[in-house]
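Check my protein:
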Amino acid sequence: MDENYDLSRLCLFTGTEHYHRLNRRCLLTDGAKYLAEGAGAFWLMDAAASYLLELGTSDWFVQVRLVVTGSTAVLTMEDGNGAVRARQVIPYTDFPIPHYTLYACWNGSDWVIMLTSEY
């Protein structure tokens, strides 16, 4: 975790001013980028993006959930109605928040990964 970032500020992100390219089909909002930088969690964004590319665009909305227990975690990709589309056990993490949810939305050309407050 980067001490220059105050993760309690995540709730202040509403909407976004810029999109930040993560890969050829995924963008991060300002808040998602802040989380990735502050928590050292670009791995989380990369994992989510890899599943989004695999899932395709039949679902335009996906919930990305991370639940941390001790130093392990479970990442799930859900359809927003409770159906799990993908699940991965993360054997080690130092992610500083016990559970966190991101949203991903298909904008017609890219998946946009965002904080829930930016939806």
Summary: The mean pLDDT is 95.
